[in-house]
């Protein structure tokens, strides 16, 4: 073979080799890009999964707090309903007691009628009727000194000076006591 044929053969080998070499480099570059893309997607999926888990934990915590708050609200509502029913019972009792006191007060203030002559001999006066007591209001018990001076006929100015109070304060207390007496009577 001649030199020229060696050169042509060598050229053909170089051309064929040059065609295959860039493909290998291109394929390796594509595989590196693909691998980098896969790594990026995996990291993204891991981050998304971690965020999802945090959200699930947060929702779980919020749900539990909501249940706890609901239970506390229910318990508080039941306590308030119980207190309300107790107060209603006390109010009923106090109204009944006031009604009874009014009946007793009316019985004491009713005029006494003479018994018919045929019963006068059979009824003995063994029943003692208690004297109606003067109602002492809460304000009178708190300011006993003030009311003692007032009942002695002392003026508001004198009472205020003796008790180191303002005249307006003394007047207010006396007015409140009068209003309180109206409620009890």
Q: Any overview of this molecule?
A:
With 185 residues, this protein is mostly helical. The chain has helices at 3-109, 117-120, 138-142, 144-151, 156-163, 167-184. Mean pLDDT is 80; it is low at 117-127.
Helical content class: over 70%
Number of helices: 6
Number of strands: 0
Give a short account of the largest sheet. Answer: none
**Structural class, please?**
mainly alpha
Topology:
Layout: H1 3-109, H2 117-120, H3 138-142, H4 144-151, H5 156-163, H6 167-184
Helix pairs in contact: 5-6
How would you concisely characterize the structure shown here?
The chain has 185 residues and is mainly alpha-helical. The protein is built from 6 helices and no strands.
Short key terms for the protein model shown above:
6 helices, mainly alpha, 185 residues, rod-shaped, single chain
């Amino acid at each position: 073979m001649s030199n020229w044929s060696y050169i042509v053969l060598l050229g053909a080998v170089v051309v064929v080799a040059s065609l295959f070499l860039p493909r290998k480099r291109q394929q390796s570059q594509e595989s590196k890009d693909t691998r980098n893309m896969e790594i990026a997607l995996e990291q993204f999926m891991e981050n998304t999964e971690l965020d999802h888990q945090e959200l699930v934990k947060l929702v779980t915590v919020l749900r539990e707090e909501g249940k706890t708050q609901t239970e506390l609200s229910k318990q508080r509502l039941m306590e308030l309903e119980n207190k309300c029913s107790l107060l209603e019972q006390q109010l009923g009792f106090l109204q009944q007691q006031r009604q009874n006191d009014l009946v007793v007060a009316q019985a004491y203030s009713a005029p006494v009628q003479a018994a018919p002559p045929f019963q006068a001999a059979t009824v003995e006066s063994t029943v003692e009727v208690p004297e109606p007591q003067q109602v002492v209001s809460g304000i009178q018990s708190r300011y006993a000194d003030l009311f003692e001076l007032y009942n002695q006929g002392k003026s508001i100015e004198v009472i205020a000076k003796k008790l180191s109070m303002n005249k307006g304060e003394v007047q207010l207390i006396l007015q409140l006591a009068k209003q309180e007496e109206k409620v009890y009577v």
